[in-house]
Every structure is written in C-alpha cells, then in structure tokens.
Amino acid sequence: MPNSPEIPHDAASANVGPFLAYLKRERRLSPLSVEAYRYAVTSYIRHPGGDPAHATRQTVVAYLDARKADGLSASSLFQATIALRHYHRFLLLEGLAADDPMTGIRLPKLQSRLPKPLTLQEMERLLAAPAGGRFKNVRNRAILELLYATGLRVSEAVGLQAGLVDLGGGYLRVLGKGGRERIVPFGARAKTAIELYLVARAAKFPGIAEPLFLASHGGGMTRGIIEAQLKVYARSAGITRSVSPHILRHSFATHLLSGGADLRAIQEMLGHKRITTTERYTHVEPEHLRRVWDRAHPRQ
C-alpha cells in the first residue's frame, strides 16, 4: 500500500505484531487485508492519546474525528473504524486491555452508489430479449450471458480474446485492473450462447481471429455499443429502470451470494483487490439472511 506508515517504535508495546499474526492465523485474512489493518492501526498509534491498551471511548472518537477533519473519505473512515474494532477486541480477548473503547461507537454511514440488482425474473427476461438468428442478436445474447455468468467488467468483455476462453473447461482468463490476471468459470448456458455466436462469427468473418466479440462491420466492439443494445433489450424485457452493464456485474455478485457462494470466491471472480469492496458490492435481502441463520445456526 503506498505511503503506508512504518510501524512505530512503540509498536511492540501496542502489540501490533501479535495482532497482525492473529489476523493471518485466526481470521485468515488476505495479505492485502492484513496490510490495510496494519496501516489503520499504526496510524492510530501515532495519534496523540496515550497507550491503546488504556484507550477510552473519547480517545477513539477524538482520533476518528481528527481523521475526518483531515479529509479522510467516508469509505476509508469506515475501514479504519472496522480495523480499530478488531484491534481493540483482540487486546481485550488476549487480556492486554481491561475494556473495549469501541463499545457504542457506530460505523460511519456509507452512501450506496450501487444500483439495485436485477431480480432473477428480470434477468431471465433480459437474457431472452436478443431473440432470433441475426448475427447481432446471436452476438448480443452471448455477451449478456457471459456478463451475467462471469461478472466481467464491460471493458474486460470488449477486450476479451477468443484464445483465452476455454469452452471445454468452462472458464476464461481475463486481465483486469492493475494487470491482475484471474480465472473465472461460467456455466452451460453461457457456453451454449458463445458456441452459437462462434458459428455465426466464423460464417460472417472467417478471416478475423481476435478479439472474441466483433461489431457488425467486423471491427471490435465498444462499451457504447453494448450499453446502447442493453437499453433496447431492457425496454423490450419490460424493465422500466435504467439498466447498464455494471448492473449485470452487480447482479452476478448479489445472486451468487444469495445462493450461498463464499464472499472471497466472489471477490476473486470479480477481480476486487479488497474484500471490503466486494462486501459493499453485494446486496442481500434480510429475508435471505434469516433463512441462512435458520438453516445454519446451532441455537435455534
């Protein structure tokens, strides 16, 4: 993480090292998450206020207020508060502090800028909208099926190389943000849609190898083309609100989580650098959480 503060000289007395080891060993956080916690805690220790082992609620509030006054974003303040929660809970559990000063301190409110995901019924109607055997419709059906099956960013779909799609294995390799490569699986419906598109593609443009998705004139697809076509299909599917490729990515993550998928697996498929991004990205209804609790919790 850029500009991370070095662990201060009094880190040993503040038990930063054991706390980070606890995050790796007990909570099994990723190296990036551990680094984010280290950054937050060492920044906290550097702030005037005394020994964290004897911190009070006022100590923590003063620190968070100071960070807010320094211009820390709402999302960063949220992450810092989460980190301090875990840190002080660790100190208490290990007998390194008598009290937890985080008691009663609420998480900062985050304004959700994510659109509401499509329902399963809306998604089914949308995917069925590109009907018929025209090249454009066959291609668009393949694009929509793939976007929903994999959660790809529209820019990743536009640049996807045919050679990186393994139809037999049911997965693709994609180069995402920051040059990070990831492998994402897809199912039978997306596979069938892509196979039908490849037949139409070979007949219309036999001499063009890459990229996978081609515009009707033989050039590469663009984000604008996909967005425009998606709006047309959304209207024909009876979806009155605005629908974008980003909503398909959001719906992919939400529907997976609602179906019981592991959050870290979703993080990997989406190509998110931090798990907190994935947590904010998904939207699960309280009724689903109720069903999960009823099914899994031993104290019914």
Instruction: Let me know the average pLDDT.
Output: 85
Number of helices: 14
Helix content: 40-55%
End-to-end separation in angstroms reads: 43 Å
- Under CATH, the homologous superfamily of the largest domain reads Intergrase catalytic core
Biggest sheet, spatial arrangement of strands: 1-2-3
* Beta-strand content estimate: under 5%
Q: What is the name of the CATH class of the largest domain?
A: Mainly Alpha
Overall tally of structural domains: 2
Global structural class: mainly alpha
Q: Biggest β-sheet: count, sense, barrel?
A: 3 strands, antiparallel
Order of helices and strands: HHHHHHHHEEEHHHHHH
State the shape: elongated
Query: What radius of gyration results from the CA coordinates?
Result: 24 Å
Unreliable segments (pLDDT under 50, ≥5 consecutive)?
Answer: 1-12
Q: What name is given to the CATH topology of the largest domain?
A: hpI Integrase, Chain A
